[in-house]
Amino acid sequence: MRSTERPLWRRLPACFWSKGYEVTSIADLTEAMEVGSLSPYAAFGSKEALYVEALRHYRENYETLVWARFFSTGTAREAVMSLLLDSAAALTGCLGDIPHGCMVTLSSVGSEGHSELGELVRSARAITLDSLKARLGRAVGADEIPAGSRSLIASSHGEGRAEFASPEESARVNGLGMVPVRFVDNPGRVTETYPANPNGYARAALE
């Protein structure tokens, strides 16, 4: 049995999950894991390696709360419905004493100067999109969903807008895959103009 499979190591993800990578200290990690101050680094060698282990454990043990029914249902409609309902339950803490939100989605480690960890997180995020595309693609191939369909999503309109410090920052956020939903016009084209994009959100990003 690997040392990382002992019960105390299972508390590791919660630190990074709730606080983020940069803010989490070695004191936080040793307290959560109930080990001596040298033990985490002795086992993994660095904080970066600890984060990699935490992310691995998170994906292997918590992502099933959101994705299990998505992969087991018979139709795309049931799959998407399960994903939405199970996400709401899991990410708000209804399924156990776990931090709120998704550790992968909330992570800003890439923008904190840790490029390799950032790439690891981006790869984990890409799996979500790939899973959705694959499932919906099968539904299109089976004529369950007509090719070229678009989904309408009702959004609550507030008096705010997405603004960035510079065009480079806007491009960086876009490149990190942090814009999950965009405004489109009637023909389905991404738009930054009123009325389809009420406040002119940059890159048509829906907050």
Biggest pleated-sheet summary: none
The topology string of helices and strands comes to: HHHHHHHHH
State the fourth-level CATH superfamily of the largest domain.
Tetracycline Repressor, domain 2
CATH class of the largest domain: Mainly Alpha
**How many individual helices?**
9
As for the CATH topology of the largest domain, it is Tetracycline Repressor, domain 2
What do you see in this structure?
The structure is a single chain. This protein folds into two domains: 3-141, Tetracycline Repressor, domain 2 (Orthogonal Bundle), CATH 1.10.357; 151-207, no CATH class. By secondary structure, the chain is mostly helical. The termini are far apart. Helix 5 (63-72) packs antiparallel against helix 6 (76-91). The longest helix has 27 residues, at 115-141. The model is unreliable at 1-7 (pLDDT under 50). It has helices spanning 12-19, 26-33, 39-44, 47-61, 63-72, 76-91, 103-106, 115-141, 167-175. The chain is globular, with a radius of gyration of 20 Å.
Layout of secondary structure:
Elements: H1 12-19, H2 26-33, H3 39-44, H4 47-61, H5 63-72, H6 76-91, H7 103-106, H8 115-141, H9 167-175
Helix pairs in contact: 1-4, 5-6
Task: Sum up the structure in keywords.
207 residues, mainly alpha, Tetracycline Repressor, domain 2, 2 domains, 9 helices, globular, disordered N terminus
